[in-house]
Amino acid sequence: MSEAVRDAPATEDLTPHPRRHAVFVVVGVALLMFSLDQTSVATALTTLGADLDADLAWTGWTLTACAVGQVLALPLGGRLGDQFGKRKVFLVAVAAFVLLSALSATSTSIAQLIVCRFAQGVAGGVILPATSGLVAFHYGRERDRALALFTSVFPMGSIAGPVLGGLILTTWSWHGIFLVNVPIGILLVVAGALLIGEPPRRRPEKVDAGGIALLLGTLVSGMVAITLVGSTTGGGLAPVLVAVCGVLAVVSGWAFLRHARVHPDPVIPLRLLRGGGLGIMNSTNVLFGAALVGFGALLPVYAQTRYALLPLAAGVLLTARAVGTIASSGIAVALLRRLGHRPLVLTGFGLIISGLLVVAVPPAGTSPAVWLTVGAVLCGLGMGLAGPAANNAGMHLVSDEVTAVSGLRIMFRQMGGIASVSVITAVLSASAEPGRAGGVAFAVLAGLLAAAAVGMSRIPNHRGRW
């Protein structure tokens, strides 16, 4: 949001466009489609594994591959819009997302589906900055309110997506989760071509393609190594492959850091990685993303494997979490200036830890569905309190580089989610009792968040405006 406002030229006509509300609907539905796709797939992991003959360690890649694509595309989205035009980039990205949804639906192997999901993540990562830029341009002087309302679109997908995924799995099949995007996307491309105007372009900055490639190599090789540890595939070659991928991950990571030291505008600036509390904040964002993305991705699998809940019931758990998040995030925003960010982050982390521990242990005097719902709501309430406050804390540390810090926050949280999903799916796949192993994994995640809370207690608190 801040990038879209900052990028507006000083001479831009700020008169609201007469078709601004129609444009808001078009780009909002596109963002909602991407959000629904991300959250509904989480309910289908066990079904995908059975249908495509793949263990959970590899079906989890349908989530992490999409997240990796999104992480890599986020630095590109704004710059592509500057070079080719936000309208054109938006339409091409939506069309690509629709085509890839159709290819995902017709996948006959887990490898084909993973490739399609990675490309879907790239398309979605390009859509995100384009939509904000288009809303800001069409609303002109009213852009602040429009963008504030626009930020509520993505969480709506978190509420509806799991239920939609569960309904489709119950009445149809996993193919339908991807096929529903096709007619919606076609209508969006046609409506967008007719309604959306082209914002003024600005001179694009150079893209750190080398840094993005090294980051991709580090993430993918690390994910493959983790997956092979827990996968039943690979046979006698598995230890060798794990070692090779592990070495590649280390070498790529070292090369990435070395590249970032010398590049004038690296995809991850080293000056924003440590010092002045930034190291604590970045570590916190990784663990917060592990809880936010990992819990949301794996709770349905856990509910199905340990307690044999149906996909629809498992999906409702994520809806309960999303409702809690939305409810408490409004409270966090209202209290932020009065209390500062630190009490809200620590309280939120306490609720998340409590929710994870509730989910990790067997039900106490009630049904598994009710027990897991209580844990999901606790996690949702904590995430809603901690999220806005942690955002504010990071930007306050480097108030003159808000856009860069915001981008890194999203990137580190996605990386945390990628790591948690990769590790936990590998553990579940390798375990003889995946349900119990999932409980242990959630308990370990609670412990890591407790350590992050200790670090956050050292961040200076700030009240009022800044």
From TrEMBL:
Residue ranges of every copy of the Major facilitator superfamily (MFS) profile domain listed in the record: 23-464
Cellular component terms (Gene Ontology): plasma membrane
Database matches in CDD domains: MFS_MMR_MDR_like (cd17321)
Pfam families per the UniProt record, alphabetical: MFS_1
GO terms, molecular function: transmembrane transporter activity
UniProt keyword Transport present: yes
Location relative to the cell: Cell membrane
Main location per the UniProt record: membrane
Residues annotated as transmembrane: 21-36, 56-77, 89-115, 121-139, 146-168, 174-197, 209-230, 236-257, 278-303, 309-336, 343-363, 369-390, 410-431, 437-456
Domain of life: Bacteria
Membrane topology summary: Multi-pass membrane protein
PANTHER family in UniProt: BLR6921 PROTEIN, MAJOR FACILITATOR SUPERFAMILY MULTIDRUG TRANSPORTER MFSC
Name of the protein in its database record: Drug resistance transporter, EmrB/QacA subfamily
Protein source organism: Pseudonocardia oroxyli
